[in-house]
Amino acid sequence: MRSIDKSISVIFMVVFTAWLLCSCSTTRRLEEGEVLYTGLKKVEYVTDSATRLSSDLKEEIHDNVFVAPNNYWKLLNWHYPFPLGLWVYNNWPNPEKGFRHWLYEKLAADPVLLSDVRPEVRTKMAEQTLQNNGYFRGKATYTLYPSKSNKRKASVGYTVYPGPAFRFGKFEYLPDTSQVNTLINSIAERDGYLRSGKQYSVDSLSAARIRITNELRTRGYYYFTPDFIEYLADTVATPGEIQMRMVLGSNMPKSVIEPYRTGKVRIYIDRPNHRSRQEPDTIELPRMTIIRQMPTRLRKGTVSGNVTFRPGKIFSVRDMDRTQSYLSRLGIFSSVSINAIADTTSAARLLDVDVFCTLDKPLEASIEVNASSKSNSYLGPGITLGLTNRNIFGGGEQLAVKLTGSYEWQTGSSNKGGVFNSYEVSLTTSLSFPRLLAPRFIPRRRRQINWTRFSINADLLNRPHYFKMAQFNMGMSYDWLATRHVNMSFTPLKLTYTKLMHTTHDFDSIMAANPAVAQSFMSQFIPQMQYSYVYDRQFGRDNRLNFSFTVQEAGNLFWSIYQLAGKHGEKTLFGTPFAQFVKGQTQLVYSYRTGPGDSWLVTRAAVGAAHAYGNSSQVPYAEQFYCGGANSVRAFTVRSLGPGSYRPPHATSSDYFDQTGTFKFEANMEYRFPIAGPLHGALFLDAGNVWLLKEDPQRPGGKLKASTFLKDLALGTGLGLRVDIGMLVVRGDLGIGIHAPYDTGKRGYYNMTSFGKSLAFHLAIGYPF
C-alpha cells in the first residue's frame, strides 16, 4: 500500500511541476509593444501547374525565413513545450554574485522577440533567393499568428509566390578574336549549363565560371581567375527569357591571355628538424634538379618518378595536384608544397617550379587499444603494438612489425563452469615495396602506387574448453591499380601451416560425432595461390557500383609435381599432409541515392563456393563459409545458421564448429537515411545461408538442393543507428528474425519461437557492405 501511495505522490509531483512551469508567465518582463516569437508556423508556396520548385530551393528559402525560438532543440528539430529558460528569465531574481547568480546565468534564456526576427527583412531575403534562381517576379509575404492564450506571443507564417522561371534565350559567347577567347568558347560550348533553355541561376553561372577557369589553368593560363569572366543579362528584349552574353572583364591584365610553359623544375628535400651544417647535395637530372640536405637516405628515382612536370611542356595546374598527391602518397614526407614562379629573365613565357619536401621521421611506433563485444557472448580487450620503418631502403619501402594480443571471457547461461579465458596472440612482420616487382607486361597505372608485399605471421589461438591452435604463414602478394576503376591483387604463394596443439574431451567428442568437421581441423599445410578483382565506380552523383570476385586454389602445384615424380596416394610436405581445394566468391553492391539529401538504397548479393579434392577430403575449417552476424544476416548470431536446414542438437552459443559450409548465398537490402548531424538511421532486410556441396550423414539437410533452396534461406529484417564522422562509423543494428531454415517447432513461414528470442543486436565498426 505504501508503494502505491509513493508512486501516486511521484506522479502528482511531476504533473504539478510541469503545470507550474507551463503556467508561469514567460512574457512578464517584456517591454511594452514587444512580442515573444514562438516559431515558424509554416512556409506556403503558391504556384501554378507549370511551376515546380526544387527541394534544394525550398530548403534555401526555409533557411532564409527560419529563426529558432526559445526552448528549441536543434539536434532533433524539436520545439519542446517546457520553456525553462524563459521561466527563469521572467520569474527569478538575478543576484549580482553567488551561487544563485551562477545558477541564473546557466538556466536563464533571453527571449527571442519578433523585433529580433524581423520578418519583413526575411521576406526580402526569400525574394532575393528567388531572383538568384531565375524567379524574377517572385514575391514573399508574411503573416503573424498571435497566441490565443497570450496576445504577446506570436508565430510567423510565410507565403511565397515564385512566379514563372526565366530561362536562357540566346546565349552569346566571346568574339573569336584571340586564342584565349576561342579556348573559352570551346569549353563553354561543351559545358552542360551555358546554353539556351537552361534556367537562370546565379550559383550555376558561378560554377560554370569556375569550371572554365579550372580548364584554362590546365592549359597554361595559370594566373586566370573566375572574376575575369562576366555575364551580361537582358530580361527586357524577350518577355520570360534572359538574353545572355559572356564578356571578359576590363580589369584583366594582358599577361593573363597568353599561356605559360614549364621552365626549370627544382626539388628541395630537407631533413626533419634540420640542423646539419653539411653542404646540400645537388643532383642534375635531364628533367629536374634535386637539392637535398645530407645525410639523406633517399634514392633519386623515388622523387623524380613521382614528379609530372616536364620542362617546355604547357604548364598545367593538374601537374601540381598530381605531383603533390604522388609525393605525399609515398608516406615518407611530413610536408610537400609547390610554388610556381614566373621566369622574368627569359623572353619566353616560362613558369619555374619549386617543390619543397620535408622528410618525415622514418620510425613510427604505434599502440592500438580496443575493446570487443562479440555475438557469441565473448567480451574483452585487445592491444596491438607496432613499429614501422617507412623508408628502410630509401625508396619508400616499409618494414612493419606488429604484436597483437587479445583476451576474452564469456559469461552467461552457456558458460560451462563459470568465467573462463580465451586469448589470441599473433606476431606479423611485413616488408612492402611501393612498386610492382613483376614483369612489365602486367597492366598498371604508372602514376599510382602499386605494392609488392612479403609477410610472415605466427598466431596462437586458445578457445576455452575446446582447443589450442597454432598457425604460421608466409606469403608474397601484388596489389595494383590496373585502370581508373579496377583494383587487382595477386598472391602467387601463401603457405600456411595449422596445428592443433591441445584439445579437450568436449572438443574430441564433437569431432568424433562428425568426422567431416574433424577432417577440416586436421594439422596440415595450405599452399595457396589467389587472385582478386575489384571494380568500383561512381555513376554521376546518384549511382555507385562495386563488383568484386576472388578465386583461390591450394595444393595443385605441389600435387602436380608429386604426380610427375610418380608419387601416388596421400602426399605430404615436410611430413605433413597439405590441403588441396579450389574456392571462389563474388559480391555485387549497388547503391542508389533516393533523394536530394544523403539517403541511399543499398543492395548486395554474394555467392561463394569451395571444393576439396585430390589430397583433401574436406576444405580446411578456416576456408569454409559461415552465415549470420553483423555483416551478414543480422537477425541471427554468427555461425548460427546452416548448413542448409541442419541444426546441431547441442546448439549453444559456442558450439558452432559444424555450422559452416562449402557454398554460401546472401542477399541484403538496406535503406540508409540521415537523422541529425552525424547520426544516421537504417532499415534492412537480409537473407542467406550456407550449404554443403557433398552429402554429410552427420549433418542431415545440409546439402545444397534446388528443391529446398528458398525454404533454406534465413530471412530477417531490422533497424539500425550509425554515427558517421567520416573516418569512423560506429554502427548498432537490431535484427528481427522472420524465418529460420531449421525446424523450430512452429508451423508456417514465420517460425520464430517468440519475438524476444528472434532479436539479435550487433555493435560494429564500419558499414556492413
Write the layout of secondary structure elements.
Elements: H1 2-23, E1 36-45, H2 55-65, E2 72-73, E3 78-79, H3 84-91, H4 99-107, H5 114-117, H6 119-132, E4 139-146, E5 153-161, E6 167-172, H7 179-190, H8 202-217, E7 229-234, E8 241-248, E9 261-270, E10 281-284, E11 289-292, H9 300-304, H10 317-329, E12 333-342, E13 350-359, E14 363-373, E15 378-389, E16 398-410, E17 420-433, E18 451-463, E19 467-481, E20 486-503, H11 505-513, H12 515-520, E21 524-539, E22 543-554, H13 556-564, E23 572-573, E24 576-577, E25 581-593, E26 600-612, E27 663-676, E28 679-691, E29 714-724, E30 729-739, E31 759-765
Parallel strand pairs: 1-5, 6-8, 9-11, 9-13
Antiparallel strand pairs: 2-3, 4-5, 7-8, 10-11, 12-13, 14-15, 15-16, 16-17, 17-18, 18-19, 19-20, 20-21, 21-22, 22-25, 23-24, 25-26, 26-27, 27-28, 28-29, 29-30, 30-31
Helix pairs in contact: 2-6, 7-8
Compact overview of the structure:
This protein has 769 residues and is α+β, with helices and mostly antiparallel strands.
Structure description:
This protein has 769 residues and is α+β, with helices and mostly antiparallel strands. The protein contains 13 helices and 31 strands. The protein has a 16-stranded antiparallel beta sheet. Strands 10-11-9-13-12 form a five-stranded mixed beta sheet. The two termini are 55 Å apart.
Structural class, judged by helices and strands? Answer: alpha+beta
- Beta content: 35-45%
If you compute it from the alpha carbons, what radius of gyration comes out, rounded to the nearest whole angstrom?
35 Å
Count of distinct strands: 31
Strand order of the largest sheet: 14-15-16-17-18-19-20-21-22-25-26-27-28-29-30-31
Shape: globular
The rounded distance between the terminal residues' Cα atoms is 55 Å
Number of helices, counting only DSSP H or I runs of 4 residues or more: 13
DSSP helix fraction: 10-25%
